[in-house]
Amino acid sequence: MFPLQFIGKLVKILHSGATPGQIAGGFILGMIMGLTPLWSLHNLVVVLILIILNVNIAMAIFALLICSMFAYLLDPLFHNIGYFLLVDLTFMRDLYTFLYGIPVVAMSRFNNTVVMGSLASSIILLIPVFILVKRGVISYRTSVMTKMEQWKIVKAVKSTKIYRWYSKYAEWRS
Amino acid sequence: MRKSGLATLLIILAIFFAISYILTDAFFESLIEDMGTDAVGAKVEIDGFSFSIFGPEVHWDRLQVTDPNKTMQNMLETGLCEFNMEFWPLLRGKFVIENFQLSGLQQNTQRETDGKIDKPKKAKDSKDNAIDRAKTQLKKETKSSSGINLSAGLGNVNADSIIAILDLRTPTLIDSTKKAIEENFEKWQDKLAETDPQADVNRISKQAQSIDVKKIKDLKSFQSSLKAINEVQSSVDSLNDAYKETRKEFNRDYKSSSGTLAEIDDWIKEDYKRALSKAKLPDFSTQNIAKILFGDNIVNQVNEYLGYVATARTHFNKLSSGNDKEPSPPRFKGQDIYFSSANARPDFWLQNMAIDGKLNEEMPLGGSLTNVTTDPKMIGKPVKLNITGASKTRNYALDGELNYLDSIPKESFALNYTGIALNGMALSKSDLFPNSIKEGKGNVDATLKITGNTFNGKIEFKAGNIVFDYGENQKSGKLASIVRDVFNNTKTLRVSVTLKGKASNLVFAVKSNLDDALSKAFKATASKEIEAAKQKIRKKIDDQIAKKKAEAEKIIAENRAKLEAQLEKYQKKIDAVKEEVNKHKKKIEDEKNKVGDKIKDKLKDLF
Questions:
Q1: pLDDT in tens, B355-379
Q2: pTM of the entire predicted model
Q3: A58 contacts in B (CB within 8 Å)?
Q4: Other Cβ atoms closer than 10 A to B35
Q5: From the CB of residue A146, how many other CB atoms can be counted at a distance below 10 Å?
Q6: A97 touches chain B (CB under 8 A)
């Protein structure tokens, strides 16, 4: 049921009135929160941006859940990246020392290898993922969505009572 | 831009700040009260607490810290206090207090309600127990001096009853020694009977006589006779050696018996000591008098200050232990990399506290406490305390430094307090000495340095216009009269206290000008009577033991004489046979000369 719910949500988001840019924006913000440790100062900034900017919040939550699952597996990699950035890049040490002295920046726990590694990875992935998701949504809507609706199986599923009940339930929940 | 989202965010923030504004004061007040109560073991109450995020600033109107030993009394009470903190460190859970204004500080004020709490006080943290060891050692010092019975009557010592209850050990030990001496004598008698050289002497004599000198006619017969006499002589020598060995053994054995006699003197000394302790004769050594009089007061004061030091050390250990950050595991949780920062702050740092209060009813106090922190190494400064106070007649100055910058904690204090009213100051509880000081004023000059568990302190106390108070229970008698005369004639008092050494082996010496005066007076009169009482006991012990000791000595001497006489006999027998053999040998040698002359004559005739 759990994966089905996810797919259902994703389909619903894709079928909603949100623009591809809003969906992609929501995804990348959710991705940052999902890949980095949740209780970090920068995530508060991300939440504020999420509230202020007109991006798709549902997609952000979806991305948060999906990316959190990957993040657990990727933590060792993030640690290595963070360690490289914080320790091995010696020319950056003065900058880190300066930032460490700024109370608000120090509160972000940027000196933690996993926080630094995951945040750096998220920032690097930001633009490619945004472009990728946006294109994906566009292509889904222009080709796949139209074609899929023509599929016999989709038509068959849509014609079942379960789907109708689910549609009503989803409509009621929303 | 999502306008509705922005509006929602602003509303949430507004609600959050409104609730915080209403509840923060109550929350912090309750939190501080609970923490304080837990730490002290009695109620800690704050009135009029307020916290403002702007500053951030904290203030309260009154703080009461209940004395856990007297719960209707406050150990400390403050009036209006306020301080501000650094904002940014606060967001990271670090409390950096810049200026703390503490006013209306008072000690031992009365409470309106009982400050007792139902919860049992937490077990004392014994991380650093050097201070506790020192406190116990000091308590022991005063106990040992106050244990002396000063009210014992002089000249009334009943030596008979003391000896009766004492159960002297020496007579029993002498009896068992006598038994051992008798057994030893019997052993030697048996041994000497076995080693009688008579049979050997007879045999050797016979052997010597069997060598006929007249038969020596030529060189060959001379050589065989000489060989035979040499063999006899070596038998005499071995007999003599065996005798000498027995003699040596005998001397050794009887030397140890004499040693046992010397031990009797030690046993008598031991019995004498026990008798003196039973008699409880006063011992007026100089140190004892000063300790008896002032020991309790000084130790209580010193222990109070040591208690503060122990608290500081315990809390320092407790707080700073949180700073020993170990690197987190590298996987999953990551690892914190630390960078040096000029703005780095410890978890707690009270930069400066201005103190204003009263030491007692009429003496206002002021001062400062600086750099109280959980991480002294980070700030690189020791805790410093400076309190001064002055009134019309008094002056008070206390300087303290708590240095926890190295691995070995160091504390140092210097106190100067002049014009102390001594009226009612309690002294010894003994009915021989005054119970308190009725009138007088004094000055204290004290220094104390503690490095790890090594103490080095000195207290100089000087007082003038002293009038002592004996209370109602005045002891009568000669001793009491001497003491009273000395105290009545003493108008100035000088007490010097030395505290030195390691916590477990602390030297605590108290000297005062009263010591010399009292010692002189006692020596002049009381010491003669004490000496007479001692002699009385000594005589009783000697009377009981001397007879038995003499008996033991006599037995040893008699036995030895008997055995030596026997050994002497043996010696004579051996000497006699030795003489006989030597004579015989000489005869043989003479005969050899004669034979030689005859041969020479024959050769002359031949040529």
A1: 888 766 677 888 999 988 888 888 8
A2: 0.54
A3: none
A4: 11
A5: 10
A6: yes
